[in-house]
Design goal:
With 370 residues, the chain is α+β, with helices and mostly antiparallel strands. The chain folds into two domains: 235 residues, no CATH class; 85 residues, no CATH class. 40% of the residues lie in helices and 23% in strands. Strand 3 and strand 4 form a beta hairpin. It is elongated.
Length: 370
């Protein structure tokens, strides 16, 4: 089966994993086609599910009066055969071509799509980089969201709670390792995963599928803007420090001019730069620190100290990049992410031929032989 969207990975805000659910009385089924298998998951719980070409349908009987059908899939993979293109329409025609036909092939028919709810949705953006992904990793590892756990795994950065995850990772590397697909571009994937129905409802004021579609861009862009806004400090540095300056202490004195305790600020910033190497070289995690509520003043004081240390670290790293001629890395991310926003695709009026994953694998194999 071929789906009818473009193969553009960069022009849109894409949708990867989607998990939907609806009550059993909103589903009619053809028992001759819907023949789910029973098995036990990793937790030992019995699962009743059937899979058809990337679409998984699970029947859950929570009780005699609460029975549901859960549907999960990767919208990008349904359209493209593999998860790279961001051209992933979520409108009626897009759902019909990418999802509904596969459900019908399994004997599952949704009576009213307005009653279908979202339990999870992963929204992503691909950023075409001018340099290898690894050159930007130290900047991405400074990203944080308040009260979230930050985790580093290989070249990926995870900022997460139990209900949401924001991930920065090397899409070129991931495609090569997991899908055996080689692409020429260096690509940063920024993916926001809203992991349960409560979080989806909290973000969009609703978790019904058709109620959230028009708000996806605002939600995603708000998260990214708040998380990466620290990069804009490179512009303040460029305004205050001349390009021919190469000495860290001199540059910091110029940057901190007008502030109290300049000597102390300069020393703290240089110390932060020295200690930053462990942050950028090692896998690990940083958990949000919990403080007892019995003394609100102490809790707030610790938060202020922690915030100040993070700000000094970011200044140190960005200043070092600027003095070593690498300030363009942060500026590139600012222009391509913060200053350029994209929208979720709409389904095209005319059909456009798409290649399947098998065709891409054959093309890669032919290139290797030649």
């Amino acid at each position: 089966m071929y789906f009818k969207t473009t193969q553009d990975p960069y022009s849109y805000l894409g949708i990867d994993t989607v998990v939907l659910f609806t009550k059993s009385h909103n589903v009619s089924k053809n028992s001759d086609l819907f023949k789910p298998k029973k098995y036990k998951n990793k937790k030992g719980k019995e699962v009743i599910a059937q899979i058809n070409n990337g679409v998984r349908v699970e029947y859950r009987a929570h009780s005699d009066w609460k029975k549901e059908y859960w549907i999960d899939f990767s919208l990008s993979e349904l359209y493209n055969g593999y998860n790279f293109s961001s051209d992933t329409p979520l409108d009626n025609r897009g759902l019909y071509f990418s999802l509904i036909t596969r459900l019908n092939e399994m004997g599952i028919f949704i009576r009213d799509w307005n009653k279908v709810q979202v339990s999870r949705i992963d929204i992503f953006r691909n950023i075409k980089l001018l340099n290898p992904y690894s050159q930007y990793l130290h900047l991405l590892r400074m990203a944080e969201i308040p009260r979230n756990k930050t985790k580093f795994f290989k070249s990926s950065v995870y900022i997460e709670t139990n209900s949401q995850t924001l991930i920065f990772y090397d899409k070129k590397e991931q495609l090569a390792n997991n899908k055996r697909i080689d692409i020429d571009d260096d690509v940063l994937r920024i993916e926001l995963r809203l992991m349960n129905a409560g979080k989806v409802k909290d973000i969009f004021d609703s978790n019904f599928l058709y109620a959230i579609r028009e708000s996806l861009e605002d939600a995603y862009n708000s998260y990214i803007r708040d998380t990466l806004n620290y990069l804009k400090e490179i512009e303040s540095i460029a305004d205050r420090v001349p390009l021919d300056c190469s000495d860290m202490k001199t540059a910091l004195r110029l940057y901190y001019a007008g502030k109290r305790n300049i000597d102390r600020l300069v020393d703290e910033t240089i110390d932060a730069l020295r200690s930053s190497h462990n942050l950028f070289l090692n896998d690990g995690s940083r958990k949000p620190k919990g403080h007892s509520n019995f003394n609100e003043a102490i809790r707030k004081q610790k938060e202020r100290i922690s915030k100040k240390k993070k700000k000094i670290l970011r200044t140190a790293v960005l200043m070092n990049d600027y003095l070593t001629g690498e300030g363009g890395l942060a500026q590139e991310l600012i222009e391509s992410i913060l200053e350029t926003q994209v929208k979720v695709a709409k389904f095209p009026i005319g059909p456009i031929y798409r290649k399947s994953l098998a065709e891409h694998l054959r093309e890669n194999a032919l290139r290797e032989v030649s």
